[in-house]
Amino acid sequence: MTFPGLGRGCRERNNIFDTDAPWEIKESILGGFGVFAKRDIDVGEVIFTDSPVILGPRNLNNPKDFCVNCFNLTNLVSCKNNCGLPLCSDLCQNSFNHQRECKLIRLMKKEDAKETTSKELVKCLTPLRSIMLSNADKNVISHLKYHKGKNHGQEIDVLVNELGFEIKEDDKQFLKIVCAVLDANAFEVITGNEQNQSSLREVLEKRLKV
């Protein structure tokens, strides 16, 4: 299947439909794929909406503490199930998304591993979330452009060597690709107001190039 076809499937799975879109996705002479207008587009016209395949915190040297479920910066406590992630409420603690990643983290941690450092785990959380993607969405990720080289994928080394995670070899290779995709294609988004902001990064399966 072509990349545009993969992207279309991803949008349909997220109930994002482009009816009579004024644009098309095709290969660009500049490299990769681009979005090209099929008609004149008005100033300020919304030409598409999209949702990320992966959404999570940036890997920063000194990140702020925030809730990994709603990204709030206040009333933070550690997960009651000792997965090592910060949360702000019982609602976030019991949310479907957190329950999934909490279970995954506890399954992957070695019994004799040192207690996970919450900030280090949060810094690695975005690529780790990709393990829970459907096979179709993983296929989308694998078709995105990504950086090559040994400098990408250090989050996986931290998970294995510092946090004591047991990761299957095929998952490890996929996670390293995810890290390289994030470094090449992630968008930074800010949540909250000026007093309560957290910085996230997201990977979209469709990108606007102008």
From TrEMBL:
> Could you tell me the superkingdom of the organism this chain comes from?
Eukaryota
This chain belongs to the protein called Uncharacterized protein
Q: Which organism is it from?
A: Exocentrus adspersus
